[in-house]
Amino acid sequence: MTTYKSTPLYGGALICDLPASFADVSAIRQVPDNQEVYIDKDGFTSIIFDITERFGKPGTSPEIDGAALTAHLEDLVGDDIDRAKVWNTTPTLFSRLDKDIPAYTLIATVSPQGADAGDGRSSTKTDFTAIILTLVRLEREKTDLLITINVPHIKGEYDDEDVDLQLGKQGKLIGDAVDYASKIWETFKVKDWGLFNEV
Predict the structure, then answer these.
(1) What's the CA gap between 105 and 147, in Å, rounded?
(2) What are the Cα distances from residue 10, in Å, to 7, 33, 77, 95?
(3) CB contact at 8 A, 131 and 108
């Protein structure tokens, strides 16, 4: 069972529960002001909070918000978009945000380029990376808040027989990441809305 701790983000302007085993990356390297990055001390999974300019037309609808979610995914994976597959997209409810604030979550996978994903410098080979991307649309603040959980699946670090998204088998790593996302949706709170004017 995962232990969580209440974690202040952006100097305490936002707060949510994150797994206790995750460390703040800014303690070891520079992180852009609009991001908060946490990485699993016991694995390879990362959680990234990213405050970005709101994408697309004013208003909210499945078309407007879907286009924004797609654009953010494309921005996230860059040139790897041709090797990305979206498995599921769903509206998302945050327990501590106004229910009128639209939010959506997708689960996608990105396969590495070429037959050998290793870069020659390390012995690890990534089979694929699972991405759980949650988009919170803050129209009044002209902001899109992205919460991305990256789950690299490295050969030898997971049981590949447990993972077949086509058959609905997520495996332990993706299952854990879905639990992390659910905890964020349940505990995420904006304490200072002025943050979105600063970043």
Answers:
(1) 9
(2) 10, 8, 24, 20
(3) yes
Chain CA centroid to CA 171, Å: 18
The pLDDT value given to residue 199: 61
Cα–Cα distances (Å) from 39 to 9, 25, 28, 62, 67, in that order, read: 14, 7, 11, 32, 29
Task: List the structure tokens of 198.
Answer: 């600063």
Question: Which tokens go with 67?
Answer: 């286009």
For residues 37-63, give the mean pLDDT. Answer: 95
Q: Which residues, at least 6 apart from 131, have a Cβ–Cβ distance to it below 8 Å?
A: 73, 76, 77, 84, 106, 107, 108, 109, 110, 148, 149, 150, 151
154 beta partners: 126
DSSP lists the bridge partners of residue 9 as 14
Better-scored residue on pLDDT, 124 or 3 = 3
The full length of the chain comes to 199
Q: What is the pLDDT of residue 125?
A: 85
Q: How many CA atoms lie within 13 A of 154 on its CB side?
A: 11
For the chain, the C-alpha Rg in angstroms (whole number) is 17
Q: Contact 64/49 with Cβ under 8 angstroms?
A: no
Backbone dihedral angles phi then psi of residue 73, each to the nearest 5 degrees: -65, -45
- Find tokens 């990356």 and name the residue: 25
State mean pLDDT over 57-80. Answer: 94
Q: What is the mean pLDDT of residues 131-155?
A: 96
